[in-house]
Every structure is written in structure tokens, then in C-alpha cells.
Amino acid sequence: MLTDLISARSQFAAGQSDAAAELERCITAAEGPACAHVFRQTCHDEARAVATAAGIEQLPLAGLAVSVKDLFDIRGLTTAAGSTVLADAPPAQADCTAVARLRRAGAAILGHTHMVEFAFSGVGVNPHFGTPAAHDARFGALPGPARVCGGSSSGAGVSVATGAAFIGLGSDTGGSIRIPAALNGIVGFKNTARLVPTDGAIPLSTTLDTACALTRSVRDAIAVHEILAARRVTRSPAPLSTWRLAVPSTLFLDGLDEAVARAFERTLEQLRRAGARIAEIALPETAQLAEVNATGGFSAAESYAWHRQLLQRHASRYDPRVRSRIERGAAMSAADYITLLHARRAWIERMQAAMAGYDALLSPTVPILAPTIASVAPGSERDAEFFRVNGLLLRNTSVVNMLDGCALSLPCHQAGELPVGLMVWQAALRDDAVLNISLLIEQELQKQ
């Protein structure tokens, strides 16, 4: 199992390693075969300068390696969002706020990671630059043919899972942090969107976009969230048995792969044996999302507003699967958009009322195991399978984005199994409860 950020800092303090040596190990991993197609641009020499700077190990991130999704501005690098359309854009003049906060905390920025073009898919496939393959952070390379790593923060997830980065800065609009976390055996925390600024990042949906990160452990997720959100997480000494947990049956448990269902049920049983109180609830409100989105979705409408001039000039350069979803926004009227805003607000109120008796809800992060890259690779003959897989991968996670909520995915599979994620979630600004509960769950699952 990979060393997490907190452990690495402890090793530095004990004189067992140092930031420069640790960074070289990360760069070696980043340049290795498991990271094929993971990085779009690198700045390793600048990262080395950070790791060797005087006093760096006293800062929260201690000169440790951080990767950045290719939609966040890094000064001196071109932000292309996984597309050829923006390849000729000028380099960023300044770091975006999220990168600046990481850098001030001592991060050694490795560079930009691959992503789904313009962040519009949960699968991770990119026809322009290749597709990273999933890697299990806990048990190593996956057996058999290469599998999708999830998106849209695809390179960010694999960079953390392979040991190339301790932190993968990414975004989550419908699951783009939690899906790669689930498929690569790592931790992905989607904070309440308003807590971390998204300025200096190319948007998909200004309503739903969340700047957040992938990490190697829940305790790392807490530390990184505190940096990105510039706030302290309120820690709770309460044991697992004191938290009120629920498993919603509507939507979230539909059509689970057998291996996902087995890992999820095994996890619930282990938590119950540890004293967790887990109720089963229907939560029928989740089935109402199709009606809420009947007039169109935020991602289509808001991405079209950003892309419409680019599409007029460069439509043929877009991934056709991405372009088709952006162009759906052209048909959405102002009245439709306002209707969607009101419908979402009313739906959130109903959801919050239904969830009020619980500190967090537990669900499989995604209902399926990672499919092979070959089954969803670019090509019109595979479009039907691609969109089927994309819908399944986003199904559970996107509920939390529409809720304006927070959620964390952590691994719950065992050796010999493909990665499976457990999602711990709640409504807006319940981040600290989700993080405290997730930490207790992780500690219990590590007893397996």
C-alpha cells in the first residue's frame, strides 16, 4: 500500500526520508509505464526546486508531489482542458486560487494531468491524447485488459493511484473526483461546491462545478480540504456507533454488478459488527431527478454558453461525444433554465427533509466495475456502449451534485477484487460530518 501524505511527513520528521528523495520517487513513477497518458505537461525541475527549498518540510504539504487537472491554471503552462481546441492558447499568467493555495502550503507541482475533453464524461476516454488505464492503489496493476480509470479527472486519479502524486487536484461536476477514486482504489472528496473557489478553471457547469482533490487516505483528504477551502475541519471524538447512518434503496442499488453488491454488503456488515447504526430508507426523492432535469440539464446549458463561439470556429476539432452533449444546450430556452433552477431548489428542500434524521448516507460510489478501455474507445460503433457506461458511472454520484451536497468515496474492496468505492454523503455544508464518519469507516475497513 502506498505511503500517504501524513505518513510521509512523519518520516521526514523522523529523518527516515526527505522531500527531495520522495519527489524523485514520484517523478520516477510519473515517467513509468503505469502513468502512460497520465500527464499532459510537466514541470519537474520547478518541482525539484520546491522540494529542496530551505524549510519546505515545515509546511503542511512539505514539498510533496501534487498533480493538477488540465483545466486549472498553472502559471507558465497552457490550460487546454484535454482538448486540441485550446492547444494554442497562451500560457497562464498566474495560478488559479486552488493551485496557489496548494503552492503556498508547500506543494511541489508536477504539472497538468490528462482529462476528458472539457470535463464532459465520467468514463475517462480522450480521443486526442490517449486514455490512462486504471491502477489499484492498494493492490497494484489490475489483471487482464486495460480498464477505464474514470473521469473526468482521469489522469489525476491514476497519478495518485500509481504513486506519482500524493494529491491530484481535480474537479467534480457530476462525479469526476469520486468516479476515478472508486475505479482506482483511492479516496476522493467532493466538498460543498461553494467552499473552494473555482476561478482560474475552465468551467463545465458554473452551477455544479466543484474544485476538490484525490488522495491516498481519508486523513489526507481532510488535510488537503483544509488547504483548498482555507478552513479547519471540526474533528469529532465520537465513535462510529454514535453516528446515524442510512442506506437509500431507490436508484443507488439498482442494477449493481455482482462484485459491487458483494463488496458493499460485506462493508455494511463489517460496520454493523463494529457498532454502526445503519438504517435502510427508500428516499424516493432520488427518482424525481429525471423530472427535475426534464427541461434540460445545467451542464449542457452552461457549457454551451461558454463554448458556442468556439464551436462556431472549431466544431470539427471537438470529441464528437463531447460536442453532441454541449450542443444540446443550444435548444434550452431561458424559461427552461429558470424552470430548472426552481425545480432544483424545491427538490433540494425535499431531499434535505428526508435526510434530516441522518448524519450521512452510504451508497456504492458507482454501480459497476471498470469496463475495458477497448469496449468504450472512440468510434461510432461503440457510442451506444460508451453512453450506457457513462450514464451508469455518473448515476449515483451526480445525485450529490444536484443536491449541492458533499461526498467522499473510499475503497471497500479486498485483494483479488477489482476496485469498488463506498460513498459517504450528505447535503450542503455537512462536510465535517462526512469527513469524520469516513475516517472512522476507513479505520474499520483497514482491519480486513
The helix/strand class is: alpha/beta
Order of H and E elements: HHEHEHEEEHEHEEHEHEHHHHEHHEEH
Distance between the termini: 14 Å
Fraction of residues in helix: 25-40%
Number of helices: 15
Poorly predicted runs: none
Number of strands: 13
The fourth-level CATH homologous superfamily of one domain is Amidase signature (AS) domain
Beta content comes to 5-15%
CATH fold descriptor of one domain: Amidase signature (AS) enzymes
Q: Identify the strand order in the major beta sheet.
A: 1-3-2-6-8-7-12-13-11-9-10
Largest sheet: 11 strands, mixed
Q: Calculate Rg over CA atoms.
A: 20 Å
**What is the 3D shape?**
globular
> What's the architecture of one domain in CATH terms?
Alpha-Beta Complex
Arithmetic mean of pLDDT: 97
CATH class wording of one domain: Alpha Beta
What does this protein look like?
There is one protein chain. This protein is an alpha/beta fold. The chain has a domain at 5-229: Amidase signature (AS) enzymes, CATH 3.90.1300. Helices cover 38% and strands 13% of the residues. The protein contains 15 helices and 13 strands. It has helices at 5-13, 19-30, 44-51, 97-104, 154-161, 178-184, 218-229, 258-273, 289-292, 298-314, 320-327, 334-355, 373-376, 383-402, 431-445, and strands at 39-42, 65-69, 108-113, 135-136, 140-141, 167-171, 187-190, 211-215, 244-248, 277-281, 360-364, 406-411, 421-426. The strands form two sheets. Strands 1-3-2-6-8-7-12-13-11-9-10 form an eleven-stranded mixed β-sheet, sandwiched between helices. Strands 4-5 form a two-stranded antiparallel ribbon. Helix 10 (298-314) packs across helix 11 (320-327). The relative contact order is 0.14.
